[in-house]
Write a sequence for this structure.
């Protein structure tokens, strides 16, 4: 009878362990949500399960970008009176402030080598936004653009050598690319078409972006600004594309339009769609705003609390088998 009980215990622990492993085996997406009354940061798998709250603060928390090693993430918050960039470890309860300036810092993007964060700020002029980068230790702040324009949503290329962003510097929203030092600027998407929010494919060959305003959609193009194709359904307000690490999916947020053709204030959700187009899959379903998706690095799971539970389960399993 003792052997039967031991065998049952091993089977139970093995099943529970496999369940825990499977719960974290699917790709995860982080996003900002106002479901508790203000924007906080959450993660959820691509099947809409295993929701986890990463920040819980009455201030605005949004615009997430992940460290390549999955240990931490950067985000924007106004918890100290104005919007600055903060860094927080996945197992921490309090973030570390990276920038500290009375003017706004927004839209951070973590470099592939893990050393830099590029962001947008109007710290030099309230009328213009420029692109800056800063070491993750808060040192070596560098201004990369200066053109009396609105330069925004910077995104590192996968090799870390280039930064894409959008700007109205030529009387219309267009997408531009420069090197990591702000040099060799070139326009790859003509102004006037309303292209914004670029996101590089993992192989560096294509860029996803949002196009237009009312009824905007997600498109991709090659790095020359050619061979563009729409990947989201027509006449749907979809924005903020984020390419999955395997290059198969593009995540974005979508919100229905009201009778005047503008997005509704609520009922914004996260979707994913095949990178070459197809039927979207809805990830979140909530009456609040769910926006600004970012794919969570696979390394996140090796430092998440669930990994500790898995280690404990395997330890018990080994003891039970002795």
């Amino acid at each position: 009878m003792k052997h039967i009980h031991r065998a049952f215990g091993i089977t139970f622990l093995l099943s529970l362990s496999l369940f825990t492993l499977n719960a974290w085996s699917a790709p995860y997406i982080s996003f900002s949500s106002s479901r508790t009354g203000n924007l906080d940061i959450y993660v959820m798998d691509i099947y809409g399960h295993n929701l986890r709250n990463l920040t819980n603060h009455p201030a605005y928390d949004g615009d997430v970008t992940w460290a390549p090693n999955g240990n931490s993430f950067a985000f924007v918050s106004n918890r100290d009176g104005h919007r600055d960039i903060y860094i927080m470890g996945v197992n921490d309860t309090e973030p570390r402030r990276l920038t500290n300036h009375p003017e706004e810092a927004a839209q951070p993007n973590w470099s592939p080598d893990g050393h830099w964060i590029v962001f947008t700020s109007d710290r030099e002029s309230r009328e213009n936004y420029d692109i800056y980068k800063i070491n993750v230790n808060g040192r070596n702040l560098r201004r990369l653009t200066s053109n009396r324009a609105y330069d925004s949503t910077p995104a590192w290329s996968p090799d870390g050598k280039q930064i894409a962003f959008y700007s109205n510097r030529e009387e219309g929203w267009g997408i531009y690319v420069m090197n990591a030092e702000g040099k060799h600027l070139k326009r790859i998407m003509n102004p006037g078409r309303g292209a914004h929010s670029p996101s590089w494919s993992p192989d560096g060959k294509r860029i996803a972006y949002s196009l237009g305003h009312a009824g905007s959609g997600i498109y991709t193009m090659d790095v020359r600004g050619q061979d563009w194709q729409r990947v989201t359904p027509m006449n749907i307000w979809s924005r903020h594309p984020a390419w999955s690490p395997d290059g198969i999916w593009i995540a974005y947020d979508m919100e229905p339009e009201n009778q005047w053709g503008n997005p509704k204030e609520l009922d914004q959700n996260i979707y994913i769609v095949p990178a070459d187009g197809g039927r979207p899959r809805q990830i979140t379903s909530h009456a609040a705003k769910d926006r600004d998706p970012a794919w969570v690095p696979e390394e996140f799971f090796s430092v998440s609390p669930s990994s500790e539970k898995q280690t404990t389960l395997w330890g018990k399993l080994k003891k039970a088998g002795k």
Observations:
- The mean pLDDT is 83.
- Residues 161 and 315 are 44 Å apart (CA to CA).
- The longest helix spans residues 2-23.
